[in-house]
Design brief:
The protein has helices spanning 3-9, 25-34, 44-50, 56-67, 73-90, 101-105, 111-129, 145-155, 180-188, 203-211, 228-236, 245-250, 262-267, 279-282, 286-297, 301-313, 319-330, and strands spanning 12-18, 92-99, 132-140, 164-168, 192-197, 217-220, 240-243, 271-274. By secondary structure, the chain is of the alpha/beta class. It has an eight-stranded parallel β-sheet. It is globular. The protein binds adenine and zinc ion. The site of zinc ion has 6 residues, from strand 1. Its cofactor is Zn(2+). It comes from Acinetobacter lanii.
């Protein structure tokens, strides 16, 4: 089988995707119009031209502005449903999607509106496409610890619909230690925990995520390679890193794809997975990320299969389901 056909055929799990980052310009315009909200672009072309980022913050400014048009439950449904259609095309059979409640509650949109819209899309995706999913709510790390505690409180009535809490937004200057107490409370309440660390921030932030937040996975984590002792720890603990190649390229974490370290990390035995992060902004969904690294880094078919197996192994599905997907992949 040629590599593109193999990538398409592989069942995959996506563990690092921000649902607000799947907002395609066409849908953004449609929702802005029906909600009668002004957006600072005259055309889809103009929106796409604005997606020219030089670092994480320059992206986040545009990403939060786009999310402002989401108001009603149906808006959140439409957003997630559009993403599930992409999953179906790319043979993503399981997804654990992030949402940023504070981006919406701070504008007066109730927590329940957000989660009900997303959940309804998750239910329909299971029924129509057979795609399973979990929701992960992220705290915005540029906001205060107190605001994160309030958000955790608002989530408690919906605890059964949220598998984990995460940590995203502007990394540098907002280390995991800032949220140590909130994460302890979230773990006590029964949430699993993940955190963005080592994207723009240093390897030290990955140590903090492990030791202070006690995470089940690290999101990004590519800068871990700068610290050999940390690398040994990640390998020994089989700690997943949810890597996002096209995101790293667009946000200039790497200068070109040939310099991306995902292949080296895989060869050294780190449990890396492939993910799209904010696919509408970074130029591609799951399979585009696979195509980009397969070509630039000359990955073998066995390595591509290993990456797909890793995605299920690192997910929050049952051991029995992990086993079943792994067997399906080996049989390809
Ligand atoms: N929010 C959405 N995408 C993000 C990323 N790549 N890093 C941090 N916060 C984010
Ligand atoms: Zn992310």
């Amino acid at each position: 089988m040629n590599q593109r056909a193999l990538i398409q055929a592989l069942p995959k799990a996506e563990l690092h995707v921000h649902i607000e980052g799947t907002f395609e310009p066409e849908l953004m315009f449609a929702i802005a119009q029906r909600n009668q909200i002004e957006i600072p672009y005259k055309s889809i072309e103009e929106v796409k031209q604005a997606y020219n980022f030089h670092n994480l913050q320059s992206f986040l400014d545009i990403y939060y502005a786009g999310a402002n048009v989401l108001i009603h439950e149906q808006d959140f449904y439409d957003l997630a449903w559009a993403y599930f259609k992409k999953c179906a095309e790319d043979h993503v059979v399981h997804t654990e999607m992030f949402f940023d409640p504070q981006t919406h509650t701070d504008r007066g949109v109730p927590f329940g509106i957000v989660i009900n819209g997303l959940q309804r899309a998750c239910n329909d995706a299971q029924a129509q496409f057979g795609i399973s999913s979990h929701l992960i709510m992220c705290f915005l790390r540029h906001l205060s610890e107190e605001a994160a505690f309030e958000t955790l409180e608002q989530a408690l009535p919906y605890k059964d619909q949220i598998i984990a809490v995460g940590l995203d937004s502007s990394e540098v200057g907002h280390p995991p230690s800032k949220f140590e107490r909130v994460f302890a409370k979230a773990r006590e309440a029964g949430f699993l925990v993940v955190a963005h660390a080592g994207e723009e921030g240093p390897a030290e932030y990955v140590w903090e995520a492990l030791d202070l937040l006690k995470v089940n996975r690290i999101d990004h984590g590519v800068r871990s390679e700068e610290d050999p002792v940390l690398m040994q720890r990640l390998i020994a603990e089989k700690m997943p890193l949810t890597v996002c190649p096209l995101s790293n390229l667009k946000l200039k974490v790497v200068d070109d794809m040939q310099q991306h370290n995902i292949h080296r990390l895989l060869q050294q035995g780190v449990h890396v997975t492939v993910n799209s992060d904010d696919p509408s902004y970074f130029g591609g969904y799951m399979n585009d990320n696979f195509y980009a690294i397969a070509e630039a880094l000359d990955l073998s078919n066995d390595e591509l299969k290993q990456l797909a197996i890793n995605s299920f192994e690192a997910s929050f599905i049952s051991e029995q389901q992990k086993q079943a997907w792994s067997e399906r992949i080996h049989a390809l």
